[in-house]
Design goal:
With 455 residues, the protein is mostly helical. The protein has a single domain, classed as Up-down Bundle (Growth Hormone, Chain: A). 78% of the residues lie in helices and 0% in strands. It is built from 18 helices and no strands. The chain starts with 10 loop residues before the first helix and ends in an 11-residue tail after the last helix.
């Protein structure tokens, strides 16, 4: 017997927040057809995190662009651009395993996240004061970026694990991560453009001040959330070293985790550091200024944003291992082509594909790790993910800066692209084993129907 049309759940039935918004019948049908793309936003806590973090991340990108431009303006040195990236990311590499243990032990992750956000805000205000007073020096920039790196070592795994609490549903987790990636890339799109406009008419100091103020939004969102008090799980007294060893054994012994983290450690070392060379491309290769730099950093953001939205449209995590391999291949090919480009419009098109491939692989990997990880290991697994993604950057930025200094920025980027392609070729060689193990883990968690053959 046919089911009456009126028995289908409406958008208002799925989420009372949409009642009374006056959506006409045809748009309503299309809206409901794709409503799975934003199902994580039905959770109030995730909505708050989505808004607050989005505003703060725009400010963070404004500061990132302003810092790289200020360093290059003061020194005209590709090598020092590499060193400034080193001082920001090196603490993440050194402290991430310890931070992962700490995050797993801390019951109130919201408080931990708030503390790290306050520290990051203070460093931005300090940079703003120094830059606006025109007394800023390279040494002070290095010191404050090191402080940021230490705070990020604890903030990043805490925020990654905090996302799981805002949705409290493993089946919706992939969508939450995809939407979270989308807001990261909206910030990556808007932040460089805002920074370029501010620096064109004023100075870098105002960029740092705006970033400091933007942290108020994420702090507000954290304290506006409501959580049901959870039970504190009694833990056996285990030393920090033993817990770090347990985390390493868990990651190294899980094939999908091991292969994905190895791939992205190589990509972060040899591929992603291309971003620190953008001031050189903007000024020397393309003969532009701050506005050109904003465009070069914004183009990957457009690609990354569309990449995040495409992941949000997925109804499950099936097929993500293949997505990691394909998107990493696209990342490498586009990066090589960008290195040969001397035309602004062509460079922007190629950077669009660089951003799409890079973010698709990053978000797909994060979704796989978050979905398959045991809850009591989540902090440690994500700390190794962050160590692979961010902790390898200091060595990569130094290498990219040295190659650009010794040869040219174009040669450095072409080298990076070929390195990404070699790493991806290795991952393709491990693809079948990675896929089969991920499929088995998803089936054990009840996330994969028995008739599914690929992950």
């Amino acid at each position: 017997m046919a089911v009456p049309e009126t028995s289908k759940p409406s958008l208002e039935d799925l989420d009372p927040d949409f009642r009374g918004v006056g959506i006409s019948p045809v748009p309503r049908q299309r809206f409901e057809q794709y409503s799975h793309a934003w199902r994580a936003l039905r959770y109030r806590n995730f909505r708050l995190l989505f808004i607050g973090q989005g505003i703060s991340l725009i400010g963070s990108w404004v500061t990132r662009v302003a810092t790289s431009w200020l360093v290059y303006k003061l020194t005209h040195s590709a090598l020092l651009l590499g060193w400034i990236g080193f001082t920001t990311a090196m603490p993440v590499f050194l402290l991430s395993p310890l931070a992962g243990v700490w995050v797993d032990k801390v019951h109130d992750k919201r408080r931990l996240t708030a503390i790290t956000q306050v520290i990051l805000a203070l460093t931005s205000f300090a940079l703003a004061g120094l830059a606006l007073s025109r007394h800023v020096t390279i040494a002070e920039i290095f010191l404050l970026n090191t402080v940021k790196g230490v705070a990020n070592a604890f903030d990043m795994p805490a925020r990654q694990t905090f996302v799981t609490r805002t949705v409290d549903n493993r089946e919706v987790l992939g969508n939450a991560i995809a939407l979270n990636s989308s807001i990261v890339n909206i910030a990556r799109l808007l932040g460089p453009s805002i920074a370029g406009a501010i620096m064109a008419f004023s100075s870098e100091g105002w960029c740092f001040l705006i970033d400091g103020i933007s942290y108020i939004a994420v702090l507000w969102s954290l304290f506006a959330m409501h959580f049901t008090p959870g039970e504190r799980v009694a833990q056996r007294p285990v030393s920090v070293v033993q817990q770090m060893r347990q985390g390493w054994t868990y990651v190294a012994g899980t094939v999908p985790f091991r292969n994905i983290l190895t791939l992205f450690a190589i990509l972060s070392l040899l591929g992603i550091p291309y971003t620190i060379l953008m001031p050189i491309f903007a000024s020397t290769v393309l003969h532009g200024g701050p506005q050109t730099l904003g465009l070069l950093l914004g183009a990957p953001g457009v690609g990354a944003l569309l990449s995040g939205l495409s992941l949000a449209l997925r109804k499950s995590s099936v097929g993500l291992v293949r997505s990691v391999a394909l998107s990493s291949t696209l990342f490498g090919l586009a990066l090589v082509a960008f290195g040969f480009s001397h035309q602004l419009y062509l460079s922007l098109i190629l950077l669009f594909f660089v951003g799409f491939g890079m973010m698709q692989s990053m978000a797909a990997s994060s979704t796989i790790l978050q979905t398959l990880t045991d809850e009591d290991m989540r902090g440690r697994v994500m700390s190794y993910y962050i160590m692979a993604m961010t902790g390898m950057l200091p060595f990569g930025t130094l290498l990219a800066g040295w190659i650009a200094h010794r040869y040219t920025a174009a040669i450095a980027v072409i080298f990076s692209g070929f390195a990404v392609l070699l790493a991806t070729a290795w991952f393709w060689s491990q693809y079948r084993t990675t896929q089969e193990n991920a499929k088995s883990m998803m089936r054990n968690l009840g996330l994969l129907p028995s008739d599914r053959v690929s992950v």
